[in-house]
Structure prediction request, 625 residues.
Amino acid sequence: MNIKNKKWTEEEFFKVREEVLKQWPTGEEVDLAEGVKYLKELPDHKNFAKKLWTAKQDGKTLAQPRAGVALLNEHIELLSFLSEEGGADLLPSTIDSYTRLNRYEECERGIKESEKAGRSLLNGFPGVNYGVKGCKRVLEAVDKPLQVRHGTPDARLLAEITMSAGWTSYEGGGISYNLPYAKSVSMERTIRDWQYVDRLVGWYEEQGVSINREPYGPLTGTLVPVSISNAVQIIECLLAAEQGVKSITLGYGQCGNLVQDVAAIRTLQELAEEYCEKLGYENMQITTVFHQWMGGFPEDESKAFGVISNGAAAAALSGATKVIVKTTHEAIGIPTKEANANAIKATKMVLNLLEGQTLPDSEELETEIKQVKAEIKCIMDKVYDLGNGDLALGTIEAVKQGVIDIPFAPANVNMGKMLPARDNKGRIRYLECGNIPFTDEIKAFNTAELQKRADFEGREISFQMTVDDIFAVGKGTLIGRPEKK
Amino acid sequence: MKNGKTIVIGVIGSDCHAVGNKIIDHVLTQQGFNVINVGVISPQEDFINAAVETDADAIIISSLYGHGELDCQGFKEKCDEAGLQDVKLYVGGNIVVGKQDWNTVEARFKDMGFDRVYKPGTPIELTAEDIKKDLGMIPA
Prediction:
């Protein structure tokens, strides 16, 4: 596979495209020229990229749920409910897990069994199976912009179908939709397949149609240190920019310590802009998305509302352009539409109360920003180094060598040597750095912060802290302290 | 200390939730079980092959993403065909789509041939106790 971080030629793109459209019969419905025409006729308020950029200028944080079911009419009903009753600013279509692994025949079975059972047996909307026509029906039935949210290593056909149906935002990326979502897909494969998606978006951009791209920030959603998730976001931003993407929303999953959360979003925005400018990517529209707590949730719904509202507050105070809303059914799985709408309402109430406010500068915040930037620099420099200056090659090699290492990721290719844990204030630190090339100073800082917790709790620094932290929020605290005897 | 019992664990279907799987592996191994972990995104056949190859005493299927109902259809029958009639079958996690009446869900999975069915959020320590009872390692 010949991989380089270089914009694909039209010839290369259209050659691969022939194969992509053959992956499932609905691929035949995709016509790029018609897609452009359709997208140009959409009103501004149904274009995701435009709505986000306006919010960014106005200093607003928009709220977006996750949602998707197996049957078309039920899916439309669900989205309409979240828009009208919940007041969602932006709408999603969460795609089911069979589609995410390109198992379209199993989707057919899931659709049929759902029809028979009278309830959704799939955990999302099988967009490829419904094709351009089905996806257009969804878009035309709602009055907000639509985004595809999924977890698909090879998301090329899904991108072709949904974009030509007027869906104007697409989540994912070559790292963020591989390591947390797949078991045995190579990095070479996903980097290349996501270059295709980015090139498709870049192509639309060149025809005068802006489609938003959103690398997936939270990764495994489990104690991911800020510098790792930010580095992955910056890399995916730059890989997308090379293919001609202009509207990019970079993501981050709430860690839970307010200062660290604010530092993460501010760093993400600043560094992405800096790198794009340095590398000559012009007229970029970079925004950020804050994901409410992605780890285990308390089962008690009132407690869950606490977690949701806390996430909304952190999103607002960090200045993120968008917040992704969790629900009180998180502990048991997929929410009802009522639970989903209630969580959006709670979130929007908090956003309204905090509109125009940000967390004020402080020494603590400055220190945290400086720390995360120093850590990111170590990772980014090494990635470029490993690729001899080529970001795509460097990324592939960096994953292999554990320079990019995601905690608890299912992918075989992920090193899994790095371990995180919370410090005594609940910030996520590196318990084991694995092969991440940090300076001695950075390693010592992380260890010292964890030692403060160890001293406070009267135990050694160990993996047991990590395990305790994983279950802590579900049990009602941020930090997994040992149980008092 | 090994306790002489072998358990196959894994996450079924197209489900990539890896965190709980790693914790289950960690805890059961600590308790002395010989743990065969087929990992995430595992088809029924992977569980069955692993159980046949290792002469397993129990299989624990995890499902966190809602497709558990589709993914587990016919599992017991395939186990029986493979000669695994005596292997205890456990399933747990967020095994259906959405908030449904638990008794109905439990009955649905017991009808499918599972010995025990676990609610969302059940600690693995509790399942481990049940397994020890079911395998005659401690009094029921």
Remarks:
- Chain B has a mean pLDDT of 96.
